[in-house]
Specification:
- The complex is a heterotrimer of chains A (188), B (97) and C (402).
- Chain A has a single domain (2-187), classed as Pyruvate-ferredoxin Oxidoreductase, domain 3 (3-Layer(aba) Sandwich).
- Chain A contains seven helices and seven strands, in the order βαβββαβαβααααβ.
- Chain A has helices spanning 14-27, 77-80, 101-108, 120-127, 134-144, 151-162, 168-184, and strands spanning 2-9, 31-36, 46-54, 69-72, 92-96, 114-118, 186-187.
- Chain B has one domain: Alpha-Beta Plaits, CATH 3.30.70.20.
- The two termini of chain B are 23 Å apart.
- The chains are: A alpha/beta (188), B alpha+beta (97), C alpha/beta (402).
- Chains A and C meet through helix 1 and strand 2 of A and strand 1 and helix 9 of C.
Chain lengths: 188, 97, 402
């Protein structure tokens, strides 16, 4: 079982991204949970969302305390929230930033852990023309998950989730953002 | 006679229509409306106001009071414009035990 | 004719609310009356979509309060239709008066309760105080561990409620947010199979049968009220059998077992946990973890049926184990009582067999407070100390800030 924690701000679509990930995994015949940490929903306020992904049924119904993977959707949260909380040195960090993993490691004094970075804000601005970093971060996460879920299934689930709500152009832009981040995510 | 819990219909359902007619509420009456047909103009105000549907009407004419169900509230006598209904103490009509 | 959407068994990523709404679509009740309240709002919104899109034949009544929601269901059910609703926390509290009317009039209404804390302080999160507060209102009560159980339980609840031996309303609880809003894998059954399983409602004394006029909701004075209450106890006793039979029928039709309780590794367990709802899932994980890491033999009894309380099932499981101590987990308070409401039931269970085990209660998860692996391990540690003869209080709070 892999446990994932998302850090984002209200309105950035992290909850939706975590739901799409769970949907894709489940549609591939595996098990997953997506559990937002509901509070008073406020646009811009820091929030957390969780995923559990497994080959076997998952019975846990509590918060993720020791995530294997932490996804930071908004770079300003690196200073604002304890994003390393509960992680050990084997944890994987997937961070939205214009910096390299080495630069992030030095800037925040991170020991151990595997750091991946992707400039999801830039991808979002170029493809979606708006700072919606959830889909590109999902693309980066799918790459990091290394085959656990097929990017094509995720694409289908994005179409299912957004299909009726946004224009065809916007949908195509989201799919491009997904694949770009999938390709552009870099490790040390 | 009220049945035991095994015989009663569930949920207090009553399956016999109009069974409340069997309840002789006239027993509760302390005052009795006494009808004098001579004074009556058949305006039907008593029939309209009676809360217990106890004004007896035949061929559009007021003919008397259903004493099995009349509780003696006196509304009919109060509303009657010709004093054709008068409230009298029930003991005048009922024998004591 | 409403369209057939699901033609074969399908595994989907659904939240508890989506699963409950899907079950309601497949059940296709005649009347649904509801008032929105977090965390149930989404459920009724999904169902309203089904209504708007012609996917159900249901008459949907968006009423102005929960008191009215249940009242409308009472009227609909008395008229001879299949009525359903859903609510949560304070909504159930507001419905309280009419809950007793539904059960007293023996109307087979089925309701999802998305378990939520009661005010004050105001709180929208998972907590079973709502259903526990209504536990003596004459409803059959089932608790679901996860979204799929909520789906399965709702489908079974229709048959349980409508059986001539019971004719009692059923409420099915799932924990707010943790289940209602979390996505999980859920197995959906084909539309036609559900339709066939729930069958046609056979109305008893319907108001709309004009050839056989009946009175519902009549007064019962001192000379007959008690007899109707005695009938309700009988119906609850029957419900024990009916729930079991419907569970067996469900297993036969769809291959998943449903009993009054679910035991998890109790056979050789030294320490027994008794839990309702979603925390039972977390406890299963802890049971496995402690067996693997520390060779501690704990086992779990998950209570699915809370009313009628399955005293014999619970005691059979305890007696068949190696029980040295029992820990009862309550996601509700009984202020002034010995411990929580579930604690009191399990205490009674032991009295009925005149067999007594060391026992203590854990109050957890109030107002959505997280109860994770560490907290359940902490509880098991207390049980081990209790079994070793240490004094442990009857009320222990998990994850409380001291």
């Amino acid at each position: 079982m892999i446990e994932i924690r998302w850090h984002a701000r209200g309105g950035q679509g992290a909850v939706t991204a975590s739901k799409i990930l769970a949907s894709a995994v489940i549609r591939e015949g595996k098990y997953a949970q997506s559990n937002p940490d509901y509070g008073a929903e406020r646009s811009g306020a820091p929030l957390r969302a969780y995923n559990r992904v497994s080959e076997k049924p998952i019975t846990l119904h509590c918060m993720v305390l020791n995530p294997d993977i932490v996804v930071v959707v908004d770079p300003t949260l690196l200073k604002a929230v304890p994003f390393l909380e509960g992680t050990d040195e084997n944890a994987i960090l997937v961070i939205n930033t214009d910096k390299t993993p080495q630069e992030v490691r030095e800037k925040y004094g991170i020991k151990g852990r595997k750091i991946y970075t992707v400039d999801a804000t830039k991808i979002a601005m170029e493809e979606l023309k708006r700072p919606l970093m959830n889909v590109p971060m999902l693309g980066a996460l799918v790459k990091v998950l290394n085959g656990l879920v097929d990017i094509k299934t995720v694409e289908e689930d994005i179409k299912k989730a957004f299909g009726k709500k946004i224009s065809e152009n916007a949908l195509a832009a989201n799919v491009r953002a997904l694949y770009r981040a999938y390709e552009e995510v870099q490790s040390e | 006679m009220i049945k035991g819990w095994r015989e009663l219909k569930i949920g207090g359902v009553i399956t016999e229509p109009g069974s409340s007619e069997k309840y002789n509420t006239g027993e509760w009456r302390a005052w009795r409306p006494v009808f004098e047909a001579d004074k009556c103009v058949n305006c039907m105000l008593c029939w309209v106001f009676c809360p217990d549907s106890s004004i007896l009407v035949e061929e559009e004419k007021m003919v008397g009071v259903d004493y099995d169900h009349c509780k003696g509230c006196g509304i009919c006598a109060h509303e009657c414009p010709t004093n054709a209904l008068e409230m009298k103490p029930e003991y005048l009509f009922r024998e004591e035990d | 004719m409403r369209p057939e959407l699901i033609k074969e068994v399908t595994y989907v990523p659904y939240s508890g609310n989506m699963a409950a709404a899907e079950a309601m679509r497949q059940i296709n009740p005649d009347v649904v009356a509801a008032y929105p309240i977090t965390p149930q709002t989404e459920l009724m919104q999904f169902f309203a979509d089904f209504v708007a899109n012609g996917l159900v034949d249901s008459e949907y009544i968006p009423v102005e309060s929960e008191h009215s929601a249940m009242s409308a269901c009472v009227g609909a059910a008395a008229a001879g239709s299949r009525a359903m609703t859903a609510t949560a926390g304070p909504g159930l509290a507001y419905m309280w008066e009419v809950l007793g009317i539904a059960s007293g009039m023996r109307l087979p209404i089925v309701m999802t309760v998305v378990n939520r804390a009661l005010s004050a302080p105001i709180n929208i999160h998972g907590d079973q105080s709502d259903m526990m507060g209504a536990r003596d209102q004459g409803w059959i009560m089932l608790f679901s561990e996860n979204a799929e159980e909520q789906y399965d339980n709702l489908i079974q609840a229709i048959r349980i409620a409508e059986d001539e031996r019971t004719r009692l309303p059923v409420m099915v609880g799932m924990d707010g947010f943790v289940i209602s809003h979390a996505i999980e894998r859920v197995r959906l059954l084909p539309d036609r199979a559900v339709e066939e399983f729930v069958g046609e409602l056979k109305p008893m004394y319907p108001l709309l049968d004009v050839d056989n006029p009946v009175t519902h909701g009549a007064v019962a004075m001192t000379d007959s009220y008690m007899e109707f209450k005695r009938q309700q106890r009988e119906a609850m006793t029957n419900a024990y059998k009916v729930i079991k039979e419907v569970g067996e029928a469900f297993e036969e039709a769809f291959g998943r077992k449903y009993e009054h309780i679910e035991t998890y590794k109790t056979e050789d367990a030294d320490y027994i946990l008794v839990i309702t709802g979603s925390a039972a899932g977390t406890a299963k994980y802890v049971v496995d973890k402690l067996r693997e890491e520390k060779s501690i033999k704990a086992g779990l009894i998950k209570i699915r049926t809370f009313r009628p309380f399955p005293y014999n099932d619970v005691m059979d499981a305890i007696e068949a184990s190696n029980c040295k101590a029992i820990g009862i987990f309550d996601r509700a308070e009984t202020f002034g009582g010995a411990s929580g409401p579930l604690f009191e039931e399990v205490a009674t269970t032991q009295y009925l067999r005149r067999k007594y085990y060391p026992m203590t209660g854990f109050i957890y998860g109030l107002g959505g407070r997280d109860t994770n692996v560490n907290h359940i391990e902490e509880a098991i540690d207390k049980l081990m100390r209790l079994a070793a003869g240490e004094e442990i209080p009857l009320v222990n709070y998990l994850n409380l800030k001291e």
